[in-house]
TrEMBL record:
Domain Signal transduction histidine kinase subgroup 3 dimerisation and phosphoacceptor: 205-269
Entry annotated with the keyword Cell wall biogenesis/degradation: no
Gene Ontology terms, MF aspect: kinase activity
Swiss-Prot/TrEMBL catalytic activity: ATP + protein L-histidine = ADP + protein N-phospho-L-histidine
Transmembrane segments: 31-49, 93-119, 150-172
The protein's name: histidine kinase
EC supergroup of this enzyme: transferase
PANTHER family per record: NITRATE/NITRITE SENSOR PROTEIN NARX-RELATED, NITRATE_NITRITE SENSOR PROTEIN NARQ
UniProt-listed Pfam families: HisKA_3
The protein's Enzyme Commission number: 2.7.13.3
Lineage: Bacteria, Bacillati, Actinomycetota, Actinomycetes, Micromonosporales
Keywords annotated in UniProt: ATP-binding, Kinase, Membrane, Nucleotide-binding, Phosphoprotein, Transferase, Transmembrane, Transmembrane helix, Two-component regulatory system
Length: 412
């Protein structure tokens, strides 16, 4: 389980998460709250001391020897001033002022504020121990400082009610702050997860584009290399053939640059709603044009089409089949120039779509071998696996190189 998100305001940390090793910077709201707490505590000190020294003890809050009232005045003022330290050392302040619970009248408000602080900002066991000390000390306090009007039990009940009210209020504030922290943490986590999903989707999309770029550009550039190799091999070819080959080279180069420009534009641009639609992706119906393009480049390609209903092939399946044929033709031009390439398409709904590209083992040809990235078959294998199909490639018993794939074709 990951750690909780630390909020900007360190005083809002619940329980033991509150920082104690560094100074806490008060916000303007903290200064206002601390000032009000101090004024409330010091105001009670003045009021309690004034009532304790009245000539008529019947109207005094508590009775006791005169010297105790004077000492209580000093202790109450000290406890009120110490409230400015409650944010940094709440537990230490509670321990230091614990003896005052037994006899001090003037420090009562300051002591309740300290209890409130510990309950809100420190672990519950520590707060429970402090509250227990106050509850157990209440009867002793009433015995040492009896009320001149109320009986013992009534004074004890009132004291316990005040402590209970402070405890209930503090627990409410504690629960509310922890709820706010939890909601803030959830919001931060949700935002981070949403950003992660966006980044993953963007990365997957760019990976898909890169794969498409490899398939398209490898096909185009292999055509360029094939025609350039033919011109190099036959420098004395008739001008018409040279012009035709140069035209094919120019057209292939222009198409490759156009594809590259579009891909780079997509990779650089951030996804935005309402943008220009993507180019239509090739399907099984575009395989004849792909074969014709290879034939125009001088590759001997034979096609055996045994598909039951080519128009009913799902777009995703047809696109995968197109890319497999494209990769097979590209590899044949690279590694087996001059060899006859056989493309076979077969299948139907429920039976699946079978794609097979076969050519003789490399027999050599004009020009130098066309370099490649070596990841074409890896990309085809990944595409087939994602589609739920199977892929086989390698040399068969007849000595031919065979690239065969089966793609699922669900019945409509």
């Amino acid at each position: 389980m990951s750690s909780a998100v630390v909020p900007d305001h360190p005083w809002l940390l619940p329980g033991s998460l509150a920082p104690t090793s560094r100074a806490i910077r008060r916000t303007p709201r903290d200064w206002v709250v601390d000032a009000l707490a101090f004024l409330l505590a010091i105001g009670w000190v003045v009021l309690a001391f004034t009532d304790s020294v009245r000539p008529d003890p019947q109207f005094a809050l508590n009775t006791g020897p005169s010297w105790l009232n004077e000492v209580d005045l000093v202790l109450g003022a000290t406890a009120a001033a110490a409230l400015w330290l409650r944010r940094r050392w709440p537990v230490g302040l509670a321990v230091a002022t614990a003896p005052l619970v037994l006899f001090s009248v003037t420090a009562s408000v300051a002591l309740l504020i300290i209890v409130f602080t510990v309950l809100v900002h420190r672990p519950l066991p520590v707060a429970a121990a402090l509250v227990g000390w106050h509850l157990l000390s209440s009867p002793l306090y009433v015995m040492l400082r009896p009320d001149p009007v109320l009986p013992f039990w009534a004074t004890t009940v009132w004291t316990l009610l005040f402590i209970g009210a402070v405890v209930a209020w503090a627990l409410f504030v504690r629960a509310r702050r922890q709820l706010v922290l939890s909601l803030r943490d959830r919001a931060d986590r949700a935002e981070a997860e949403q950003q992660l999903r966006v980044d993953q989707a963007r990365q997957l999309e760019r990976t898909r584009i890169a794969r498409e770029m490899h398939d398209v550009l490898a096909h185009r550039i292999s055509l360029l290399s094939l025609h350039a190799g033919a011109l190099e091999f036959r420098p004395d070819a008739p001008p018409a053939e040279v012009a035709k080959a140069a035209g094919v080279i120019r057209a292939s180069a222009h198409a490759a640059l156009q594809d590259l420009r579009e891909v780079i534009g997509v990779l650089r641009a951030e996804p935005a709603a309402g943008g220009a639609p993507e180019r239509p992706q090739p399907t099984l119906g575009d395989v004849p044009a792909l074969v014709a393009e290879s034939r125009a480049a001088g590759v001997r390609v034979s096609v055996l089409d045994e598909v039951v209903d080519a128009t009913a092939v799902p777009a995703a399946v047809g696109r995968s089949a197109y890319r497999i044929v494209q990769e097979g033709l590209t590899n044949a031009r690279k590694h087996a120039p001059g060899a006859v390439v056989t493309v076979r398409l077969a299948g139907g709904p429920e039976a699946g779509l079978a794609v097979e590209i076969r050519n003789r083992w490399p027999v050599g040809g004009p020009g130098s071998p066309i370099p490649g990235t070596g990841t074409g078959l890896v990309g085809v294998a990944e595409r087939v696996t994602l589609a739920g199909g199977r892929l086989e490639h390698g040399r068969d018993a007849d000595g031919d190189f065979r690239l065969a794939a089966w793609l699922p074709w669900p019945a409509s």
